[in-house]
Design brief:
Blueprint (H helix, E strand, L loop, with lengths): L9 E2 L2 E2 L12 H23 L6 H24 L1 H5 L3 H26 L9 H64 L3 H18 L9 H19 L3 E7 L13 H10 L9 E10 L2 E9 L11 H15 L4 E6 L3 E8 L6
Parallel strand pairs: 3-4
Antiparallel strand pairs: 1-2, 4-5, 5-7, 6-7
Helix pairs in contact: 1-2, 2-4, 4-5, 5-6, 5-7, 5-9, 6-7, 7-8
């Protein structure tokens, strides 16, 4: 049976959607760390055997060559087998990884005995091979345990982040629904056909707003959400509501957190346009500049006293969500402009925490 969209599947023995507990060991950073740690381990071994006055550089060179070969070859094979291992249970994946490291150690030790017999330093070859296997099993077990704990920590942080985002988003949905239903209620008696159309638009709008649980939302998705909402408001306000869209097409496919842009439009309508007898124009600017998505929503207001009351709930919510997702890189700024009110937000779409 196919898993439902958004369903968490059991991978590598952990309830985590598709992420194996062993990281990508082919990444440059991983390779650098493995080489560095392996060399530090060799240096400690050589210091323990030769001491500082007569440091054995030959032993350092031969041990470095052997250890780096085992480490890098094991990492390369684990990197290639990472995808097949990810479909196994946690015990099988761990056992398979450990056996692979031991197999590489055994094969490399046998080859080293044939090419450099002096590596044994007077020890019987079989005992030297067994020692290498014991050291490799202990170190591999420690490293695999570390990878598993790191993966669990990442998973816990991700779940906590999602729970916080869900909490922030849940706060804004009732507010959005309340305002939209008020708009529809104002049309029921005077324009029942328009009210019926508004209900249909509201249904489509909610279907669109709920899709963020299935796939990531984009700028285009959020713009569509705004168009649905403004369509409902247009039935109530008519020609009083005008929108000037200035959208960079290059930004449309970029990721955007769900329900970030629509609350800004809602504020612009309820605390700006609807308060003006002649209405006004909401100017929406979306640009992709220097690797950042930058959005500006500007609307006329009847007076400076209006925007100190109703804007704060949505703005505080959006600011929190941007900080949770992007840290200090996610910014939101609201600026009164005398007879207008402008809200600007920006974030690097590829740098979510």
């Amino acid at each position: 049976m196919e898993p439902e969209p958004g369903q968490v599947t059991e991978v590598g023995g952990d309830r985590e959607s598709g992420e194996f507990f062993i990281p990508d060991l082919c990444a440059p950073r991983s390779v650098f760390i493995m080489v560095l740690l392996a060399e530090l381990m060799v240096i400690v071994y050589v210091l323990a055997n030769s001491g500082l006055p007569r440091f054995n550089w030959d032993l350092l060179a031969t041990c470095s060559l052997f250890v780096q070969w085992v480490v890098l070859l094991s990492a390369a094979l684990l990197c290639q087998l990472r995808h097949p291992f990810s479909h196994l249970s946690l015990p099988l994946a761990t056992g398979g990884s450990l056996l692979l490291v031991l197999a590489v150690t055994a094969a490399s030790s046998y080859l080293a005995l044939q090419l450099y017999p002096q590596l044994t330093r007077g020890t019987v070859g079989a005992w030297w091979l067994l020692r290498n296997l014991l050291v490799a099993s202990v170190l591999a077990g420690i490293v695999l345990r570390y990878f598993y704990l790191q993966q669990q920590l990442r998973l816990q942080e991700k779940l906590e982040l999602q729970a916080r985002l869900d909490s922030l988003q849940a706060r804004i949905r009732p507010h959005f629904l309340f305002n939209t239903l008020n708009s529809i209620a104002s049309l029921v008696m005077s324009r029942p056909e328009a009210a019926e159309q508004a209900v249909e638009d509201l249904s489509e709008l909610f279907r669109a707003s709920l899709r963020e649980n299935v796939r990531p939302t984009t700028v285009a998705d959020e713009l569509h959400l705004c168009e649905l909402y403004l369509g409902i408001e247009q039935l109530r306000l008519g020609e009083r509501l005008r929108v000037d869209w200035q959208v960079d097409t290059a930004a449309c496919d970029e990721p955007m957190p769900s329900l970030v842009l629509q609350p800004l439009m809602e504020n612009a309508v309820y605390h700006g346009i609807s308060q003006l007898p002649r209405g006004g124009t909401i100017t929406v600017t979306v640009r992709l500049t220097d690797g950042e998505v930058r959005v500006s929503v500007e609307n006329p207001v009847p007076g400076e006293s209006v925007h100190t009351q109703g804007h704060h709930m949505a703005l505080a919510n959006i600011k929190q969500r941007l900080q949770v997702l992007y840290g200090s890189s996610g910014r939101l700024q609201a600026t009164p402009l005398g007879g207008a009110y402008r809200v600007e937000l920006s974030y690097p779409p590829g740098a979510a925490l």
